[in-house]
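Suppose you are handed a protein chain with no further information: no name, no annotation, nothing but its sequence. What can you learn? This example shows the usual starting point.
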Amino acid sequence: MPLQNLVDYFNNRFGQEHRSSFRPFMLEEGKISALFGPIKIGSVFSPIRLALKSAEIIGHAAKLKVSTHEVQHLYSDEIENLLTNQPHQASDFESIINFDRLSRTVHMLNYLPLAHLQGSLFLEVDPRHILGVKQDHGAYFEEVIRQCGLETKNVVIVMTVNSQYARHYQELVAGLDNYRQRGYQIALKFDYVAQETQSFDLITKLSPNYVSLSARHLEQVRDNALLEKLRALRTLVASAGGQTILQQIDQKKSESLARNTGFDLVQGSYYERPSAPVFLPEFPDAEIRSANG
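A reasonable first move is to predict its three-dimensional structure. Written in structure tokens, the prediction is:
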């Protein structure tokens, strides 16, 4: 289906759901964006690569591209209503749910030109969205995915683990399990596994497909046992059937950290530079000599 037809479909669906004439989705120069109040949101995709073969891309992490947009006076009241709780929705997270759904739809539409690569699309979901939706997590977005002609198995739901929501872990795990039952993959995102026991218990309980850490955050950590902790994390995730990702790699030392601690996957600006090295599989000398005749 042409992109403009999809934009029209989702604008019509949005209007029906919110009883609004506001049409948030726009197609401009082949890119999809959406309006949320005075904010215009688009997509940026960052490749996720094999750590030991960085030329091979297994998926893309979607990030929001945000800019300001002048709100048409005609729609300003309607937008304000979307940012507040609806009378029929007894949820403190209604605006978060609306924004999450809007942004993920934008990402999915912008991802379509890359979908032929058969990789996974990593989409972050706010924990408040998971807590705000009481059942059938992923059902709404499953319809978006199907309308785009794709499948849930190629979508990774990424949740940032935050101590602020520690008392809600049981509900969050249940919500993520709902996504998994619909065919989505699951990822947990940490800045740094500071509370090893609690974090490791969560990984063991959920058995996520992916666990990611931020290289930028690790660069600020002063911990003599860092390498051992990262290797232990990698072992735990692998034992649960998952893979580890070191993200936000901007410099050589973070790339070396990923390789030295056995991370499976990597992502970051370091690999996007024109002069970035391309790592290929390592072969024994005998195999190399044989290949060279």
